[in-house]
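Q: What does the assembled structure look like for these inputs?
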Amino acid sequence: MRDFRTSTALARGLGAAGNGTRDFWHQRVTSVLGVLLIAGVLIVISTSVGADYDEVTNLLSNPLAVIVLLLALLNFCIHMRIGMQVVIEDYVHGPVTKALLLIANTGFSAVIGVAGAAAVLKIAFAG
Amino acid sequence: MRSFLPLNFGADTVSRIAKGKIWDTSTGDKATRVLEVYRYDPESGRGPRLDVYHIDRKSCGPMVLDALVKIKNEIDPTLTFRRSCREGVCGSCSMSIDGRNWLACTQPIDDIRGTIRVFPLNHFLVMKDLVVDQSHVIAQHRLIQPWLKSETPGPERERLQSPEDRAKLDGFYECILCFSCTGGCPSYWWNGERYLGPAVLLQAYRWLVDSRDEAKGERLDTLEDPFRLYRCHTIMNCTKTCPKGLEPAKAIARIKAMLVERQH
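A:
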């Protein structure tokens, strides 16, 4: 089918969505916080090098370690979700495929985040 | 600058570039330069081809545009390309030269080693040979309303601006709309229908930063969109390929900073 729309109609499209800034800002915020949180995670991991199972579970039940690990999970799941969304928007142009992938992306990030949090909490509270 | 990929890698069948005619006008002189030029005529029913021309450098001007004009005048009058000012101010002769989008009139022949490969500006649909269809990007430029907007009645004489505010336009007002940057932007290749591209966004910033303009909010409203603005991923090809030495990537980053600023 030949497209008779004018250049102006094509350039205007559906208009400006009026968003995008929030995701842009959150991506930067989680990048900066991620640097600090990775440092925290590395401290937790390096402290447990060479330790036996009981010592590690003991360390991971320390409230500070639990907070650092949970914050890192939350931070990087948000970061990952926005990053993957950008990749999908960049390269996937079929509307149905794009919608399904965006839903899958949110679901995947949520599952990773909740599963990770459940693991941390289980070790913290049940050993 | 040679690509490591074969010429037709991933190209549609109709876009695959065949070997073209060799216009052997070589005199065997050391000063002879060889140009491979993309040729395509949609009315011919054939796909594109790469013609080879030999130019006597001694009787040719210093720039690639001089070589193209020489080819058109003396060897092959069917070669089609845009040109006008021949001194880097009109933006007509932007094309892909030796793997980089640039103005043919400001690209010295002697700066290129070996065969000089000339293609149309990347990404745009080819109308004929080196002439591309820029109607969409021109419409996108119109979308950002590139003119001074003010509700306050104008003064009898000029609208005043301090030297400091005027200096904020430096590096942004000089854009000649050659679209070398837009054609070189991978984000524009994937999403050019919706993404405005570096040239248009640089122009948008030029008006956003103009102290005489009263429509900053409206202008930011027009740009605040995941596709119109936020497809820019700071790839920086735009800055690398600007023949005027401007930095569209910096302008885009500043627009994003303005949008963040008005949220907090």
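Chain B has two domains: 13-132, 135-150+161-261.
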